[in-house]
Amino acid sequence: MIVYADILVLVNLLVNYFLLLATDKIIKFSPKTIKILLSAFLGALSSLYIFLPEVTLVSEIVFKITVCFVMSVTAFGFKSFKRCFKAMLVLFILTCAYAGVMTALWHLLKPNGMVIHNSVVYFNISPTVLAVCTAAGYILFTVLWRIFKRSSRLASQCEI
């Protein structure tokens, strides 16, 4: 399958943007939109990692943690180690959850036009379909977040 770098970066820009918005919903640091977009763009550039030869698991984990750190600092700033670590951890967990869902989809349904290499997901679909699906996923996350936030008695007392 042919992987187009421009589509790869665009897809990852969109996904990273919504992952950062979801992270902000959880940690409530309220960064400026421009910082989130810049962070999403840096994360999108890291998706070019797909073009490298097969890498080891250790180097893959180190790369992903480094990218997560750069994205977190870019979007949410570095006011303290604790705050930065919190943002990075939440973003990393959300990214791992997204990657897990994509890997399960890839293994179970074997969709045409989907490639996973070096932990980078590539969809050969139209940008319109991708944008609608990503936005729908974010809306679903937001609705579920509000439902569970309201229904949990401990939600106002617990901190991540």
Protein architecture, described:
With 160 residues, the protein is mostly helical. 69% of the residues lie in helices and 5% in strands. It has 5 helices and 2 strands, in the order H-H-H-H-E-E-H. It has a two-stranded antiparallel sheet with strand order 1-2. Helix 1 (5-27) crosses helix 2 (33-46), helix 1 (5-27) packs parallel to helix 5 and helix 2 (33-46) runs antiparallel to helix 3 (57-76). The termini are far apart. The model has no long low-confidence stretch (mean pLDDT 81).
Short description:
By secondary structure, the chain is mainly α. The protein is built from five helices and two strands. The chain is globular.
What topology does this entry show?
Layout: H1 5-27, H2 33-46, H3 57-76, H4 81-109, E1 114-117, E2 120-123, H5 127-151
Helix pairs in contact: 1-2, 1-4, 1-5, 2-3, 3-4
Instruction: Encode the helix/strand succession as letters.
Output: HHHHEEH
Which word captures the global form? globular
Low-confidence stretches: none
In this structure, how is the largest beta sheet organized? 2 strands, antiparallel
The helix count comes to 5
Approximately what portion of the residues adopt beta-strand conformation? 5-15%
SS-derived structural category: mainly alpha
Major sheet: order of its strands?
Answer: 1-2
End-to-end separation in angstroms reads 41 Å
Q: Into which percent range does the helicity of residues fall? A: 55-70%
Radius of gyration of CA atoms, rounded to a whole number:
16 Å
DSSP strand count: 2
Question: What's the pLDDT, averaged over the residues?
Answer: 81
